[in-house]
Amino acid sequence: MKIKFFGHAAFLIEGEGKRIITDPYKPNAYNSLKYKPISSPADIVTISHDHEDHNYYQGIKGNPVVIKEEGEKRIDGIKIKGISTFHDRKRGKERGKNIIFVFEIEGIRVAHLGDLGTEIEESVRKEMGSIDILLLPVGGYFTIDAEEAKRVSSLLRPKVIIPMHYKTSLCDFPIAPVDDFLLGEKNCRIFSGSQVEIKREDLKEGEIWVLNPEGG
């Protein structure tokens, strides 16, 4: 399986002969997101919520299946589960709902938390099940912040965390940089590239992988 980070909350997850893109951003979304347009085609696109920095499936080539609701699906051998959560700390009253997606590909379970805005309830944790790789928002303001993200990761106990949705030179949202989340963490791997190739046996407990956005 391969995972590529485009930037913000957009990833390409490739396995089982299929290509999944999560939360594709609209170029120059809200006049604040300067990552390059996503050029990779996809078979499947998942949308955690309907904001333009996460929902621009129209820009994705390949005539993909678009999933933006909760529930379970199986597409050509890939299991996908959408779980309803909230984009804020007031049960959706400020920013609405958020969908967590859990993918099972080549025996590896990957969870994309979207714009999760509140800590995870026990019922959601049980519905998610065991997680190998957690794509975790850490920047705060619109999502959980660094400390909340650490508590969420402690609850879910993934083997590997890949941070997302944080401030960079190409993201001018009022959110924190990834360094806030990395503070005090020891098992961090900083990648110069945007992509990793993963086998289940390569996953080590408690690692944080920081990918360099391809769209940067």
TrEMBL record:
GO terms for molecular function: hydrolase activity. Gene3D superfamilies: Ribonuclease Z/Hydroxyacylglutathione hydrolase-like (3.60.15.10). Pfam families: Lactamase_B_3. Keywords: Hydrolase. InterPro entries: RibonucZ/Hydroxyglut_hydro. The keyword Hydrolase applies. This is MBL fold metallo-hydrolase. The lineage of its organism: Bacteria, Bacteria division WOR-3.
